[in-house]
Queue: 2 jobs
Job 1
Amino acid sequence: MCKATFIIIEKSYLIRKGLISIIEKIPNTQVIQQFDNEDDLKILVNFESDFIIINPNLLNANTLEIIKKIAKNIQLISLSEKSIVLTKELEWTAQIYLEDTQNSILKKLNTLIGNRETKNVKSEVPEEISKREIDILKNIALGYSNKEIADKLFISTHTVVTHRKNITRKLGIKTVPGLTIYAILNKIIDINDTGKSKS
Amino acid sequence: MADVIHTNYFTLSVLNRFGIELGFGDKSVEEVCKKNNVDVDFFLEIVNAFIDKDYFPKKHLQTFPVKLITDYLQKTHDYYHKLKVPEIENLIEEMVDSCYTQKENIVLLKKFFNDYKQELLNHTHREEEVVFPYTLALEKAYNSEELDNSVIELMDTYSIEIFQNEHDDIEEKLLDLRNIIIKYLPQPKNSKLCNKLLYELFNLEQDINDHSRIEEKVLVPKIREMEKIITKRFTKK
């Protein structure tokens, strides 16, 4: 599991320190950078981080542009009094209020980190190979070309190529002989069937 | 020199390729290289690139003579065919013999590797017969003062571009084989053999990777540069 990383942008030293000490209570987190004024934000693009916690009062025309640019990959969290109205130009994932108790801040952050993890895990779980893909795989293993498979199954060659790519991604096997062995091991084809189409 | 091996025992195979034998006592790398007529700089760059994936001084490597580079590549070919491939074949053979429950599966692996061996053989053979002689002839022309028309004829029939285009990914099948054994092969009783085989496959794959890297990032750019300069010389004339 990789660390959840934070960038904090806030003028007040006390508030920054306080927030950092709360974040560090959560295992596997790290505050990689802190800024105390809007002028330095240009270098923000050089950092990769999961979250940015920013005081919306520090947003001006320039900083807004910078944040917009990087916000595609980073989740934004506001840090302000409850009464502050957030700009609609940015997409905020969460709000932390200065009035919040430690527990409610921890709760908010934990939820965010939790969401991030389930998202990551999901993409890493190997997907099962589908029925259609098994059909395609069978034909590949039997020695048919993309064109032949397309004609046989009444689909376009392009679709066959897409299926092949997905099969390779799911199985981790790229070459035809490799796929053939997989097909035999999994009884998708019989060992005596191989190379029939070529003869 | 002993420290080199102590640091990373994979270097043993590289030493072997340079014809350096063990038993060199406390001699330094430089002393051992001198004694074996090995270019120290070249040896160091090759060894370092071999053990450290992130270290690859391609600009520096390109400055070495073609002969040094092709000789080294040639020796790695020998190493594959005379040592590594037979070793893997023996292991697979042993697996076939010791397995009763799924002999047919192991026989599949054997066939797969056999085809691969043939592919590797064709691949290296073509390099030795066509590519290396071409690069050497080109270097000779490059270094000589006279303009010899035969080199232009040679460049008409072949160019390093052709090599680069037909230089297929020879490691792909090894990766497949590895994945099949790790993920999909019903595990034979004799897992010791299976692990040994995997270890050898990893080893060979890594070595071939290093080998291809030298070809593609050192030899090809170097020759392409020479081709350009030679063509220029002729157009000037």
Job 2
Amino acid sequence: MSNINILAQRRQKLLALKALRSSPVVPAHKEEACPSCGKLVARRDLSDHHYVCPLCGYHHPVGAYYRLSLVLDKGTFRELEVNLISNDPLQFPDYKDKLDQARRRTGMGEGVVTALGRIGGYLVAVGALDSRFLMGSMSAALGEKVTRLIEYAGKNKLPLILFSASGGARMQEGILSLMQMAKTAAALERFSRKGGFYISVLTHPTTGGVTASFASLGDILLAEPGALIGFAGPRVIEQTIGQKLPEGFQRAEYLLEHGFLDAVVPRDRLRDVLIQLLRLHGKGGDIRG
Amino acid sequence: MANRDLTPAERVALARHPGRPGTADFIAALISDFFEQRGDRFFGDDGSILGGVGLFHGRPVTVIGHRKGKTLEEHMAYNFGMPSPEGYRKAQRLLRQAEKFRRPVITFIDTSGAYPGLEAEARGQGEAIAETLALLSSLTVPVISVVTGEGGSGGALALGVGNRVLMLENAVYSVLSPEGFASILWKDASRSAEACEVMKLTAADLLSMGVIDAVIPEPEGGAHENPHVLYQVLDTTLVRELGALEKQSGAALAAGRYKKFRAMGLNAVRKERT
């Protein structure tokens, strides 16, 4: 298939997704087994509950557009840097195909959606990573989009909200992926020193270089229930220490207990909590466009 | 074999050579009157990061680097150079003092990565690295980082946000160790030699990508063959680089460092035509 065709298809799908405003990971069966409690749940019930299992409260990972639609005021979503994509800097074997696949499957150009929007009337710069796009891994394009969003928020004195979901570095971009940690952390430090307000929301799973950079640098750190959050992944740790990890290790509730989160917030409460935090931090957040 | 003919995998082996000079050796050779500072003032002291204050050609500098150790006892004591959060928080403490006392910072990078252990996670390895990156990026004193051996992952980068980033000829610097890379990407750690080839982790690769500023030549056969020659070259290089940075104002140093890292990977992205 020619490159042009792929791009045209991608754009069509993108438009369709935007129109629908919902692109959950859950496949379109009528009923499906919850990966947590194992019970059958009607897909309709699941979507009515924002993809949280009505029986056990398991929070399914959701796509970036859907994620943003859950917190933004209706009709206020304006996407930024839609066309910024990765360039295969190392000419890495098979990477171009993997990128094309991910783009076709998700309708996204990269693993993060950045946007301008309103939450409870407050204008915010907001971004969401998408774990369906090569595990939300940090590519140069992802780092660049996040950095541009931070700089946009700084320039326009807007509060910044980022939803993380990432397996860590984008291996196929090697050291350039690693450098995005320094880039995003440096941009956030500048933003913070100028008085910028940043809420980081960690969703399942957030690990590796994203945890060790922008996801951990919020003025407020929130997480969804049960989210896996860490630097090293559980498998690597088990190999290192040669034993099984305790139940609940690296889960949101564990991090809360160990002092690394302000709150664990269920998905259906998230918008209200964000509005409360925006209200409390007023400065910069109440500029009405 | 001449250094220039080495394969990436051979350089990885040299970078890990047990006799390769490390942070403690560089301090002994280049810094006088060194006082080691220990502890993070929260929880403990992590020997895998060695730091303190000393004189470089008569002027006080803060030196921080990974420490692997040379003997088995040292390897154990320093956890093979894999830092825990305490190590990064100690580094933060020293960096704040460097800022306070207007001391230039020299960092030496040599780690396979931050320690992926249970307790390191429980005490916030990710947060510790993130805060170190943010702090280092904002300093208004000169920062020179030298990748001396293995530069592995975020655990290495945490000490690598310098105004100038230099690299020894046979050092390597990568997103992950070649073994970890092969394991994640191909589910097969034994393909690490292949990983070395595709990862672009040599000093020459990184120089061409703009990730580092200069390569410091090593003696034939590697740094351990004739460390005193290397110390001489390193000393001359640091004097020159530091001299150039010290002419800049604090604001210019912070702005320059931001600009440098802000540009990382810009060649790796493009605007899709619409």
